[in-house]
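Action item from last week, closing it out:
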Amino acid sequence: MISPFPEKPGPGRPGFFDEDGAGSAFPPWAEERAVSDEALALAYESASPILRGELKKTVARLHALWGEHPFRSEEALFFRQGFSVTRASSAAPFALFLCPASYAHPVRFTAALMPAILAGVSLIVPVFVPPVPAPPASVSKDEASGVFPGGDLAFSTATSSYGFPPGEKPEPGLLAALELAGVERSFAMSGEDVLELLSDFGSRHGTGRVVLLGGGDASAFAWADALLARALRAGHGCAVLADASSLRLDAAHEGIWAWPDLEPCWFRARSLSFAAGFETDG
């Protein structure tokens, strides 16, 4: 049986990166779009005590709720009928988090990252994307969503080269959340770059997970249809997060957040392997 799991986890903490460039998890072109370590540190230092407290409380509550999973676990079951079953669970090889640069909800952002961290995903990659302007009237609805005749997926010319305007940066609170969560690498990319990165990750790392935040804001993800179609066609798990109407918080937890439908198990893959021919005692 061919195992769907990687042989071993990536090195180091979530979002790992080899400083020497050997065995880097990211393609070289992506490094040009990386958020600097200095920006992350400055954002955390400038965060208000209230925000830091809310971020820390969210991390603590979700860690207590789910606990931390090993990268891979196996359980062998032996049956009197003369066969065995190996039940395995392994973290996805990567989790790609797409977040509008203007998403002013750092606590919700942290709550999306935590299930992947606790699931044991070694390559956690937040990508901050710019808003995409509405396509002109001459662009069809299918083209605007990235679906062209013949089933090919691409961006229309109205959005393909759109990147971050000069001086536009991710919300500082989002960077502070990354620093506190221990996610070491993040990027600022256009939608076109995201598709290229997703394709690269799929070929280099296998089947991963894709999470889109701000799903309730159509202007933030005018190209989301193309991305989701590409990701699903490649077998990646996809989730779109908007407001969680099923979340209830009392007065003591007003500053925290959790996504009820997003748990560590979603970031893990499971398999069963049957074998025959073992001997039973007695």
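Closing note: The first strand starts at residue 72 and ends at 79.
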